[in-house]
């Protein structure tokens, strides 16, 4: 197909190596106490390792593709400074679940997404401690070499992942949604939440996310019959933080009709 022949296999194969190298780096430095700094508030943390992983990924990308653009969490800009509709660009979250990384040394991910001429091509999530890489080609998403099946889960037989801030602060309609499910879970990492959805352990995820949090997982999900929407039902814009529901396409209207009544 035209889609398959245009697929950026060179970028995909390079990125797999780079993300795996980032995982090896993080695992090999786990005994070292990270240098921790705060960002917007006391519980918004960043470490020297976030910066080092990001720098390494960015320099590898630009060495191979000097004209590509980059949107990366630790650059300090929440919006792209390039044209999203026409650029070849990478979205990078060097460590997703920094708090888990610091406190638990588990349940964190290295993530990236690649867009060609503004169109999503592949996402990549490395569950670092499990050393499992989730990635996609033009047709399917994979965990390592295993293709992930399309799924049609239903709310009343499934678990939901929710963002703990949203649940604590304005829970009414999240509770209504949660009460239609088997139960809720909170993993402290968008990437690990997406991995659980891809594996069929969780139906969906409701959270307040930046592009680097949702872009990789959303591209991976698009190959198994799932997608991501804002509470208004649009595709997330890649511009700053947005409230996002990621879940099965057949439940879009049912879930968003509950969430859209709320003031999340
Ligand atoms: C955060 C985690 C967390 C989610 C936050 C994200 P970070 O990413 O994914 O689970 O609730 O919204 O910002 O800062 O650890 O990369
Ligand atoms: Ca962060
Ligand atoms: Ca993140
Ligand atoms: Ca991060």
UniProtKB/TrEMBL annotation:
One of its GO terms (molecular function) is metal ion binding. Keywords: Magnesium, Metal-binding. CDD domains: IMPase_like. Pfam families: Inositol_P (PF00459). InterPro entries: Inositol_monophosphatase-like (IPR000760). Mg(2+) binds at residues 73, 93, 95-96, 213. Its cofactor is Mg(2+). The keyword Transcription regulation does not apply. The keyword Ribonucleoprotein does not apply. PANTHER family: INOSITOL MONOPHOSPHATASE, INOSITOL-1-MONOPHOSPHATASE-RELATED. This is Inositol monophosphatase. It comes from Lactococcus termiticola.
